[in-house]
């Protein structure tokens, strides 16, 4: 049974385990590094590098200096990070199977370097770019975001990425560009889920955003998580993160970014239009036809203290994004 | 020398041993999941894992129960009849645990959530109706109720067929994508129910020919 009671100690006051475990190493490093250490800015990579038994994903060599230079993101007050093992071990990535543990089990062979991304559609500078070239001008930074899955579970994840708006500006979309469409890799030889006979999804997976959503400062393209590069199961080497929308909008392993005048035909909406809208904003007032969106299980949620919390409108980012939808009936445009 | 199951049932000791074996075997999934839960080895979302697991085993025991009559008739495994009620009750047992886990770990026993799930969510409603049917069959499964209901007992227990169809709908309805697993179990159910339809049609033909 869930008994709601005010905790004696605010969770914001509790030192995260990762920090707690780091203290000795931190003191050692401080003594050894001395002044050198003090002169460097806080780095995302160093923060999580200790006290982890799970597999780590360093990423390609060319990414290292950018990853290492990523600035640490501000934590979300009162909300602790979902442990690394859960973030990389509990995924929906149907290209690698339907189970939550399938992506981790089956995605390890995904070839994520070299990687190419096509920029096309209503844009002044179309072309196909290597990921290295695509990332080069961008300084990476860490963003700690809530991730709310449409299945009513959620996590808090420290992504490393850069503003999608900055990337869009570089390629100079034309006046006709009203939407941005993203496409995931389609390669059945590497993605067993795309070979499945019983899948109801059409491949490749496609997602999209309205231009103002894509240009919003909260919207990022991520290349890393927890101080390292993205693991394949989390959408390596390049994924979208839109924190105020259900997780399926944050498309993984992107190979194409296309600017369009028409609203893109996105995969889940095509599969079940009654259940998944184009917008897919997190909204506790609009239920999924088959289940409630009023609450969520914040992971890790142990059986003996189920962490069931109220879902917040726009996943708690209403102050920043609600104006994008002013005047819109969010029941109609779910 | 290998003893057949029918031979084992000829001696009282054999019957008793076999009863205990078939009684304890269905508890293994429960022991397994409790062990995993206690050792915190159910992944990031243990609530969902445990509810899905118990639901799947409910369906399996339902299909096992439904396969008793066809196996008896087709293969002459008369001994199976002795365990039909036990497996029917195990179906109810796992269905109840499944429902209890859902109310506890997913809904946290919040009254407003429970009210909404039971009034607005079609697949929950269908599942709940199926469970209520199982409760009715479970209660009336005793010798006393068999005697009391007489020939109505059989009629009442034909309810297991609509219950099994509701259970399958409940299962299929909550799938987001990928119907492989549902197809597998639906096919088994189709064979088990289809066999009964075929059996009845044949029997009716025989009766008609005799007149």
UniProtKB/TrEMBL annotation, chain A:
It catalyses: L-methionyl-[protein] + a quinone + H2O = L-methionyl-(R)-S-oxide-[protein] + a quinol; L-methionyl-[protein] + a quinone + H2O = L-methionyl-(S)-S-oxide-[protein] + a quinol. Gene3D superfamilies: Oxidoreductase, molybdopterin-binding domain. NCBIfam families: PRK05363.1. Heterodimer of a catalytic subunit (MsrP) and a heme-binding subunit (MsrQ). HAMAP family: MsrP. Part of the MsrPQ system that repairs oxidized periplasmic proteins containing methionine sulfoxide residues (Met-O), using respiratory chain electrons. Thus protects these proteins from oxidative-stress damage caused by reactive species of oxygen and chlorine generated by the host defense mechanisms. MsrPQ is essential for the maintenance of envelope integrity under bleach stress, rescuing a wide series of structurally unrelated periplasmic proteins from methionine oxidation. This is Protein-methionine-sulfoxide reductase catalytic subunit MsrP. It comes from Marinobacterium zhoushanense.
TrEMBL record, chain B:
Binds 1 FMN per subunit. InterPro entries: Fe3_Rdtase_TM_dom, MsrQ-like. The chain crosses the membrane at residues 17-35, 47-66, 87-110, 122-146, 158-176, 182-199. Keywords: Cell membrane, Electron transport, Flavoprotein, FMN, Heme, Iron, Membrane, Metal-binding, Transmembrane, Transmembrane helix, Transport. The keyword NAD does not apply. It is found in: Cell membrane; Membrane. It is a multi-pass membrane protein. Its cofactor is FMN; heme b. Part of the MsrPQ system that repairs oxidized periplasmic proteins containing methionine sulfoxide residues (Met-O), using respiratory chain electrons. Thus protects these proteins from oxidative-stress damage caused by reactive species of oxygen and chlorine generated by the host defense mechanisms. MsrPQ is essential for the maintenance of envelope integrity under bleach stress, rescuing a wide series of structurally unrelated periplasmic proteins from methionine oxidation. Belongs to the MsrQ family. HAMAP family: MsrQ (MF_01207). Heterodimer of a catalytic subunit (MsrP) and a heme-binding subunit (MsrQ). This is Protein-methionine-sulfoxide reductase heme-binding subunit MsrQ. It comes from Marinobacterium zhoushanense.
């Amino acid at each position: 049974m869930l008994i709601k009671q005010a905790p004696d100690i605010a969770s914001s006051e509790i030192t995260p385990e990762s920090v707690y475990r780091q203290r000795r190493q931190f003191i050692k490093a401080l003594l050894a590094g001395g002044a050198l250490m003090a002169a460097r800015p806080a780095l995302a990579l160093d923060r999580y590098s200790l006290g982890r038994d799970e597999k780590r994903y360093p990423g390609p060599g060319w990414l290292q200096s950018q990853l290492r230079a990523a600035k640490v993101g501000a934590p979300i007050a009162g909300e602790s990070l979902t442990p690394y093992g859960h973030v990389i071990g509990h995924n929906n990535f149907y290209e690698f199977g339907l189970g939550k543990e399938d992506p981790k089990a089956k995605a390890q062979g995904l070839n994520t370097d070299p990687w190419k991304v096509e920029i096309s559609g209503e844009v002044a500078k179309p072309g196909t770019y290597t990921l290295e070239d695509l990332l080069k001008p961008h300084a990476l930074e860490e963003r700690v975001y809530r991730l709310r899955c449409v299945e009513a579970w959620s996590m808090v994840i420290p992504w490393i990425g850069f503003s999608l708006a900055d990337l869009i500006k570089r390629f100079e979309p034309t006046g006709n560009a009203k939407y941005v469409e993203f496409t995931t890799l389609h390669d059945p030889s590497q993605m067993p889920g795309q070979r499945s006979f019983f899948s109801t999804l059409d491949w490749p997976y496609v997602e999209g955003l309205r231009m103002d959503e894509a240009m919003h400062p909260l919207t990022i393209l991520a290349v890393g998580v927890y101080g390292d590069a993205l693991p394949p199961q989390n959408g390596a080497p390049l994924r979208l993160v839109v924190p105020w929308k259900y997780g399926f909008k944050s498309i993984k392993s992107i190979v194409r970014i296309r600017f369009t005048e028409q609203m893109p035909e996105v995969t889940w909406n095509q599969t079940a239009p009654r259940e998944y809208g184009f917008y897919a904003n997190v909204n506790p007032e609009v239920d999924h036809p088959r289940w409630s969106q009023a609450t969520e299980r914040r992971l890790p949620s142990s059986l003996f203290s189920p962490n069931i919390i109220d879902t917040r409108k726009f996943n708690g980012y209403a102050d920043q994004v609600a104006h994008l939808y002013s005047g819109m009936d969010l029941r109609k445009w779910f | 020398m290998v003893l057949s199951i029918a031979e084992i049932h000829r001696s009282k000791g054999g019957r008793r041993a076999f009863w205990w074996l078939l009684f304890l075997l269905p508890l293994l999934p429960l022991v397994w999941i409790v062990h995993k839960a206690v050792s915190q080895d159910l992944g990031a979302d243990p609530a969902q894992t445990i509810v899905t697991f118990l639901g799947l085993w409910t369906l399996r025991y339902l299909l096992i129960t439904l396969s008793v009559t066809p196996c008896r008739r087709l293969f002459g495994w008369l001994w199976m009849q002795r365990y039909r009620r036990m497996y029917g009750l195990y179906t109810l047992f796992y269905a109840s645990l499944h429902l209890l886990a859902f109310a506890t770990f997913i809904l946290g026993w919040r009254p407003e959530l429970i009210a909404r799930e039971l009034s607005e969510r079609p697949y929950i409603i269908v599942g709940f109706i199926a469970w209520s049917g199982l409760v009715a069959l479970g209660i009336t499964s005793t010798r006393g109720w068999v005697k009391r209901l007489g020939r109505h007992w059989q009629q009442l227990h034909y309810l297991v067929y609509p219950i099994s169809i509701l259970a399958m709908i409940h299962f299929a309805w909550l799938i987001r994508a990928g119907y492989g697993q549902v197809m597998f179990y639906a096919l088994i159910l189709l064979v088990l129910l289809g066999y009964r339809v075929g059996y009845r049609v044949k029997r009716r033909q025989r009766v008609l020919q005799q007149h």
